[in-house]
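just leaving the lab so this will be short. below you get a single protein, a line of residues and a line of whole numbers that encode the local backbone shape. id like you to explain what the token line says about the fold, in plain words if possible. thanks a lot i owe you, the record is right below:

…
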Amino acid sequence: MMKHYDEYIIQLIQLYLVGDLSGEEKVKLEEWVSQDPSHEKLFKEICDEKNVAHDFGIYENVNKDSAWEKVILKGNIKQKHNTRRLGWYKFVAAVMIPLLVVAAGYFIRETKPGAKQKGSELASIEPGKSKAILRLADNRVIEITREQETRFDVAEGIAATNNSLGMVYPEQVATGKTEYNVLEVPRGGEYTVTLSDGTVVYLNSGSELRYPVAFGAERRDVFLSGEGYFEVAKDAKRPFFVNADKLKIRVYGTSFNVNTCNLANVETVLVEGKIGIQETNSDIEYSVMPGQLALYNREKGTMEIRDVDVRPYVAWKEHEFMFDNESLEEIMNTLSLWYDVDVFFQTASLKQLHFTGHLGRYEEVSHILDAISGVTQVKFSVKGRTIIVME
């Protein structure tokens, strides 16, 4: 999901720029600046307002009165100063808004040690690829890709193969203690795992699956965080359960998609077969038929079943994006995971714009953003690996 910038630090920088820091606030800002060399570098860059604002090409286009109102709102500034000083604040506000875009770009993304910062061209942001991290019960951690075939000892006496199909576990039934592996797919990644019963799970970016190296004789349980598409092997004697967030999904040999990435809802879409869904602490099971979406509202604890076109929900598995009247916020959340970028909206109202389109998942991000911009009239800029959405 998209990360959010540290609003409190940005507010302190706002107040510093207008000369309205209290003693306590000044101490906190100085502590933050001294914590890390990157903080000091950011602070100096923000203070060089003309150069920074010019990078975004919006320095001359900011309405001073509008900008000042936004500064008051975001910084919680009390209008208790004299008229002369307020005039100066409004002047400074004209550069503060573009500066905050830059600040957010740094706060949004935590720079990884040794990571190389890419250029500012949108085309330089490449799509995701097959990669994952395998965590074993003995605390070993293995980074895996599909570049070459390898074998791993995933438990005592059990070796799995990693090849062009992803991770493939040998078919067998556990007779002793159940050992679990965890397959973690980072942002900008995707991966596939074939479990010991023949079930195939496709994992999307920013997802994690915990599963037994070999299922027992009575039931099959896996645990999902993020988004996964399941093709479950039929086995009448051993029911298959997907535990996702607060839900338990009982599978009757089928293909379906589960997505827990949305903050408000858990989405389960059935392509074929039959599934039953219930809350972890409830005996009520909701039946879902092919072509239906089960929408579980986390806050309200309610379940809604509706008929849908399933293609937009599972298009990612076929290397496509299908946006069907989706909000720009939802779209950018999806793109942030796949392209491993962070997103900052200059104006909150832009999040509610909607877009419909069918786009290639492996295209450069510039092609995707150009298509969205052509329909919604929004503009996109980039700072490092942060995409900025502007009016």
User: Anything to note?
Assistant: DSSP finds nine helices and 24 strands in the chain. The chain has three domains: 1-44, 129-310, 319-390. Residues 83-108 form the longest helix (26 residues).
